[in-house]
Amino acid sequence: MSNKIAVTDAASTNTNATSAANRDSSFLFSHLKAGDRVEVDHVVTIGSSDRWSTRTIGTVVRTERRRHGLHFHRNPDDKVYSDVLILRRDDGELTTLTMDEFTQLRRAK
To answer: Is the pTM of this model over 0.90?
Structure first.
């Protein structure tokens, strides 16, 4: 009996668009196109009780699913991906935002 494990590329087989805070954000992320204006709210927990929130507004340059080595001490076959949004802010600055469970994404008005 063989104990072979099939390995697939998570970026091509993952049906969950992102780990955003809610389905609306996840759905919007998966349908963004270059030129769309968006507003992103992100909450960072500091310590056990403080929270810091920030809002970024800009025009979508592109979206990506990036592979990274966050868990490099684990099995070298582990694949870890982050969904990334690259925006051009109104002042021309390019900024990169990582979608996570604390991210709220919506179209800018």
So the answer is: no
